[in-house]
Amino acid sequence: MDQEYERRLLRQINHQNLPSEARLTKCISATYSPVSVKSGDRFIPTRAGSNWSINFHYANENCRSPSQNHKAKDTTSDSSKDAVTYAALLRNELLGSGIETVQDPHTDERRHAVPSQDSHSLFKYAVHTKRVPFHSDNEVSPYSLSPLSNKSHKLLRSPRKPARKISKIPFKVLDAPELQDDFYLNLVDWSAGNLLSVGLGACVYLWSACTSQVTRLCDLSVDGDSVTSVCWNERGSLVAVGTHKGYVQIWDASGGRKLTSLEGHSARVGALAWNGEQLSSGSRDRVILQRDVRTPPSAERRLQGHRQEVCGLKWSPDHQHLASGGNDNKLLVWNSSSLLPMQQYSDHLAAVKAIAWSPHQHGLLVSGGGTADRCLRFWNTLTGQALQSTDTGSQVCNLAWSKHANELVSTHGYSQNQILVWKYPSLTQVAKLTGHSYRVLYLAVSPDGEAIVTGAGDETLRFWNVFSKTRCTKESKSVLNLFTRIR
């Protein structure tokens, strides 16, 4: 008898002699462990529970370093639009979806708007007896050799929004010696005439963005005083200078002469804000003074609502309301007629210096808190309601809205020292800019609304293209000689 045949016969006899429970257990174990059962001369692995696309993705990520993974995510964001377009093209050709435009995959509406149509089978056989008339604008030529349908051709011809790219490197870095590292001061402002005013120690310097020339406007060292704030009027002809001794000086920028010096404060003036011909000043003495520069200094309005130093002032775009922030963690909103605040917000847990009114939505106000708060908070001043808030992770020093888009930029101190660009109202971060080694305490927006300048205690001014897509070639090649040297 053949030995192989005898072995199989004995195995069959032993299997028949097993109790029913043992045979049932053996069958169950064999069912759930396919490796233990030999089926013929081939081993067929079970792949029913495997997700090969996920496993392959994990294998690639495990083989790469974290820096490579970060770069891969950047390239993926660029190629995602091509992938969406290709998927829409396949849906048109295989399923007849009729997609003509592709939306940005990074927007909230990530799905294609597929027109409603009758349900039909995937494979449809039909005889076209009537040719569609040819239109040069919308249809494909009947003599075209392209296998794509008319909808797919429209899809490929549809305009695509270019990817938003913000340079993370400043296009200008200027030295600013003696630029103070003080959270409560406002020492940088950009005028409508494209002049940048910077307070350095006891002097105020003007830098022209057109010619890169620097002029010294004033020197307060002769009076034993120092600069604590600077602010341009709306036309860019006058610059207000707040001093450590509590004076507010008005200077003619073109003539380089002092027009007047206003008294009234008993401590340093750290915040200034123009409203037409009226000038508001906030001081360490907790008082806000409103004065018309055309009238005698005695005609003034005293606004008293803060219990500590006033460190932020901003007028609304319609010139009707003044927002003030203080070291008492309060945000107050004043109108042009009353001596008492019309609204008071107390949600912040630290000093409120960063304040900005939206130029796109009437009554929308945003404020930022200091180190103990770190939050951006949005307010509807028309109803007095809090809208939304987000924790930025670091001290909020300044805020500014874009003039062209519904975006805003914030500068931060402890502990990130970064610049963030936000999209409103989703509050998604568009860009994160770093470079300053100290707190980014100062911020100003260019008159065209495309660039910003930031200043920090590292004694540098850095210019960033935040809200623009291209940069002027002439301006980028200009020779920079602000103050002493270029870094």
From TrEMBL:
It holds the Pfam family WD40_CDC20-Fz. Pathway: Protein modification; protein ubiquitination. Keywords: Cell cycle, Cell division, Mitosis, Repeat, WD repeat. InterPro entries: Cdc20/Fizzy, WD40/YVTN_repeat-like_dom_sf, WD40_CDC20-Fz, WD40_repeat_CS, WD40_repeat_dom_sf, WD40_rpt. GO terms for cellular component: anaphase-promoting complex. Residues 174-464 form the CDC20/Fizzy WD40 domain. One of its GO terms (biological process) is anaphase-promoting complex-dependent catabolic process. The keyword Thylakoid does not apply. SUPFAM superfamilies: WD40 repeat-like. One of its GO terms (molecular function) is ubiquitin ligase activator activity. WD repeats lie at residues 220-261, 303-335, 433-466. The keyword DNA-binding does not apply. Belongs to the WD repeat CDC20/Fizzy family. This is Fizzy-related protein homolog.
